Amino acid sequence: MKKLLYFLAFSFIISLSMTAQTLVSAEIQKNSSLTINGSTNITPFKIYQNGDKLCRSKLSVVTTQNQNKTLISQNQLSVVVKNFDSNNAMALKDFLKLLKSDSYPILQVQLNYLDVQPISEKGKIYTGEALVNITITGKTKQYIIPITFNSTGDVYTVNGCKKLSIRDFGLTPETKMLGMIKVSEWIKIDFHIICKISIDNEVAKL
């Protein structure tokens, strides 16, 4: 009976530690970037946004750790569509038109959870996946994105890449010059996010 009580107590302590909620502040650094790669039947193009435009204030999120999975709530990154830039002025103009930037000036990204495993002996390099909601022109789609990240002190670098179709958001690829130039429906989103992380306090233990 005593062994059973010890086991139940131990299990209860473990369950508390697994559901501890923590308030975390993340400050996106200037050398971060968000890049969208697309193409026409003639040439590829690249549209990007650097860290100084991605987020100008700290993000405060609540995290819940459950084994290797980190659940993240109360977070949303709002990306100003017209802050994108490109070396191809025509591609940028067409991109802003496609995303209806006047009617939908904000592209939203919400991170739901991270599921990662360490791949280095020191445990500072991880690989895994993130469940992300992306909202474009008011339509939200959910994607699982493979990621890698590493940490140096309180600075974390996250890299990920996802190929998706703009048709997911009800958008139709444009054609130009009487159909001679056709934009591919497929784009590849690359992100290189560098964050300075600080833990504010433990919110609760459920």
From TrEMBL:
Cell inner membrane as UniProt keyword: no
SUPFAM superfamilies in the record: YceI-like (SSF101874)
Signal peptide: 1-20
Keywords: Signal
InterPro entries named among the record's database cross-references: Lipid/polyisoprenoid-bd_YceI, TTHA0802/YceI-like_sf
Domain named Lipid/polyisoprenoid-binding YceI-like: residues: 64-193
Keyword Signal: yes
Gene3D superfamilies reported for this sequence: Lipid/polyisoprenoid-binding, YceI-like (2.40.128.110)
Stated name of the protein: YceI family protein
